[in-house]
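Milestone M4 deliverable, item 7.
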Amino acid sequence: GFVVLPRSHLKLKALFDEEPYKSKNIHFVTLPPTSSVSPWSSIFKDLSSPIKLCLKAGDYVLWDSRTVHSN
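Output delivered:
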């Protein structure tokens, strides 16, 4: 399913100010589960829990791609 962390797009500046992203011109980050900077880090601690959408083939999702998500 598609998982999204609501309102996490509001925290991107804080994430990109962290190492190892701070000095790089990047537009997205892949966060492996073992990353020290993960969606569950202190940057995102005050956000609500992730939401999982159970979609069917052909369903359409529209979201802000700056929001932490996986699919």
